[in-house]
Amino acid sequence: MAKRQYSFYPGCSSQKGASSSNYLVSVQTMCEELDVQLNEIPDWNCCAASIGYAGGGELPRLTLSARNIALSEQHNANQDIVATCAACWLSTREAAERLHEDQSLLAECNTALAEAGLKLKNVTPIKHMAEVLVEDIGYETIAAKVKKPLSGIKIAGYVGCQTNRPFGIAGESYENPRYLDKLVEALGGDALTGYEKKVQCCGGALAFSEPAKSQEMVKGIIEAAYDHGADLIVTPCPVCQMNVEVYQDEINATYGTQFKMPVVYYSNLMAVAFGRSAKEAALNAQIIPAKALDDLAAK
Amino acid sequence: MSDLNTAMVERYRTNFLKEVEANVEEGEWVKMCMQCGVCSGSCPLGKFWAHPPQEIFMMIRAGKREEVLSSDAMWMCTSCYNCIVRCPRELPITHIMHGLATYAKRLGLVPQNQPTARFAQMFWDNLMKKGRVNELKLGLALYFMNGFGEGVKTALKKQKLGMNMMKTGRMNPMEILGGHAVKDLSGFQKVIQKAQDLEDARIAQHGARQGA
User: Fold this and answer.
1) Average of pLDDT values for A111-139?
2) Using one digit for the tens of pLDDT, what is the confidence trace for A92-109?
3) Does B153 contact chain A (CB < 8 Å)?
4) Which of A289, B6, B106, B117 is surrounded by the fewest CB atoms within 10 Å?
5) Do residue A12 and residue B133 have CB atoms under 8 angstroms apart?
6) Residues contacting residue A245 through CB under 8 Å, at least 6 positions apart
7) Is B160 touching A (CB cutoff 8 A)?
8) Considering the domain B3-112 in this protein, what is its CATH number?
9) Do A18 and B171 touch (CB under 8 A)?
10) What is the C-alpha to C-alpha distance for residues A204 and A40, in angstroms, rounded to an integer?
């Protein structure tokens, strides 16, 4: 089968030595197995995420994304852009839509881009990796690649906010999206479909500026996973992953809980289910080890 | 008060709604709000907002300029987009909240020491330096946001978290020496500076057109 090619926007947190570098490693492994080729957008920049608005304002923020799209259109022409980070995807797609609707903003944006000899055509579809998996590749093809089913592993699918709203995955509801559960089932795992905190906000960037408020929400997200007997939580978003995994010590100290819930990416699950090693699945980057996956990868 | 704020007060004296429509991202949607309150009930941090979105919309129409722009309400937005997908009239509420926050900042009306406002500015300054976010420097800047003494305390409290991130390869102490960057940094900075200038000029013009 010919490889599917995408113009890839990896995003700041995926870089070497950054907080979701493990996401990138596992995505690369996953893509090898799925015959997907990711062509990085040359010289991409930060999208400003969902917190850059205050420093930048509307036009500078949209122009950040416009630069990435313009570079993609120049170097990876005719390839859909795919992002693995929810915020990267959201910012890029939002910018493309806003600049499509507002011609005067587009004109200003192109005036700015001309400073570096760039021009935005704005004709490129912008996808999240979850859309590539669900819509372009499909559950059946994914299931057919499974060598080590995640049998007996109970998994809470935490979709979070920005992979789900405002764009989401076609055919899925905002209030009860099922694609993560379906993905888990395609991998032979035990999807906890009744996990009620699947679209609860973790606080996003406010985990840094309003930690107490954010951690109160994260507590609920983890507690519900325990209530359902989860072995681990899976998410498609680097901010969700970080916020739900790394503050568990602090939450335990505040609330007297004893949380030790692993939080992984769908790509960690897929790399293991496709028979790849723990290292290739980036399981070594878990602060809270995902024992069930480590054991399976070692088999 | 900033000069721009004074100019805007003069320019829109009797009509705060018009000021919002002209100067706030997606502000032209405000008058479409039908006051159902679904946004306020959907907000994950709703209980912390001095004025939830529905109330903010009503206050804008009632001309409560000072109360809205100097409120810390919109700084509570986590960008979860619940309000956007649930609004029966499809108002881009998240963007309007971001827009109000940005506009308040532009006019110098943000409450002092509002933590999210300060973090948001740090994030922007951080990404503008190299074109990509340097997580290590951003984290350290955040710890030391309230002075050196507080910073040392916070850093000590976060020591285990930091060690965990480093041990797993998800934080790199060498990033302090420069770190990841876009190659065409001068081109990048020129582009964003131009965008900034164009937006500043557009909004300054609104303030200047008195009686227009």
Assistant:
1) 98
2) 999 999 999 999 999 999
3) no
4) B6
5) yes
6) A262, A263, A286, A287, A288
7) yes
8) 1.10.1060.10
9) yes
10) 26
Q: Domain A147-298 carries which CATH code?
A: 3.40.50.11810
Taking domain A4-129, whether its CATH number is 1.20.1050.140 is answered by yes
Least confident of A159-173, B58-72, B106-120, B167-181: B167-181
Position A158 pLDDT exceeds 80: yes
Query: Which residue(s) pair with A81 in the sheet?
Result: A7, A126
**Around Cβ A17, how many Cβ atoms within 10 Å?**
18
Cα–Cα nearest to B45, from B69, B78, B7, B68: B78
Domain residue ranges in chain A: 4-129, 147-298
Contact A187, A33 (CB under 8 A): no
Nearest of A277, A119, A214, A5 to residue B119 by alpha carbon = A214
In this prediction, residue B178 has a pLDDT band, given cuts at 50, 70 and 90, of confident
Q: Do domains A4-129 and A147-298 have the same CATH topology?
A: no
Per-residue pLDDT at B212: 41
Q: How far apart are the first and last CA of chain A?
A: 29
Count the residues in chain B.
212
> pLDDT digit string (tens) for A12-46?
999 999 999 999 999 999 999 999 999 999 999 99
- Mean pLDDT to the nearest integer, A199-212: 96
Determine the residue among A22, A24, A25, A59 to mutate to test chain B binding: the one whose Cβ has the most chain B Cβ atoms within 10 Å: A59
Q: What is the ipTM of this complex?
A: 0.95
- Structure confidence by residue, pLDDT tens digits, A213-247: 999 999 999 999 999 999 999 999 999 999 999 99
Mean per-residue pLDDT for B52-70? 97
What's the full length of chain A, in residues?
A: 299
Q: How far apart are CA A207 and CA A96, in angstroms?
A: 28
- Show the CA angle centred on residue A8, arms to residues A141 and B178, nearest 5°: 140
DSSP string computed for A70-110 = HHHHHHSTT--EEESSHHHHHHHHHHHHHHHH-HHHHHHHH
Q: Which of A12, A65, A268 to mutate to test the interface with B (most CBs of B within 10 A)?
A: A12
Segments making up each domain of chain B, as ranges? 3-112, 115-194
Contact residues, chain B, for A44 at CB < 8 Å: 182
Closest C-alpha among A244, A166, A236, A217 to residue B82: A166
Share of chain A above pLDDT 70, in %: 100
Interface contact flag, A18 B182, Cβ < 8 Å: no
Candidate from A57, A217, A247 with C-beta closest to B44: A217
